[in-house]
Structures are given as C-alpha cells and as structure tokens.
Specification:
63 residues; mainly alpha
Length: 63
C-alpha cells in the first residue's frame, strides 16, 4: 500500500517541478512577440511543463 502512495507522490512532485520549470521558462526566456504557441502564455507554459514533468517523474511499472 505504501508503494501506491509513493507512486502518486512522485507523480505529484513531477507535476509541480514541471509547472515551476514551465513558468520559469516563460518568465525568463518566453516569447515577447506572441507568435510562439507555448511560451507566449504563462498558463500554456506551465501546463506543458507539468505534462513533461509528469512524464519524466512517472515511476516505472513494477512487476
């Protein structure tokens, strides 16, 4: 049962880290002209970062 909680905790940390990284990318590097579909909007950058963080932090399937 502890493994189940660890899996969700790791996924949540990945979403949080990815969201912060997406916001940071928008804030420091972002696209000022508004033509970049992801980096011109902070919410899209955070959502994209959160998805990438989830994919990177999602634990492997244990058998």
């Amino acid at each position: 049962m502890l493994i189940k909680y660890k899996k969700w905790l790791l996924a949540s940390i990945g979403i949080l880290v990815g969201g912060v990284a997406g916001w940071s990318f928008w804030y420091y590097i972002g696209c000022e002209s508004g033509t970049c579909p992801i980096t011109s909007n902070p919410y899209r950058s955070m959502a994209y970062g959160a998805v990438m963080g989830l994919l990177l932090f999602w634990p492997e399937r244990s058998e």
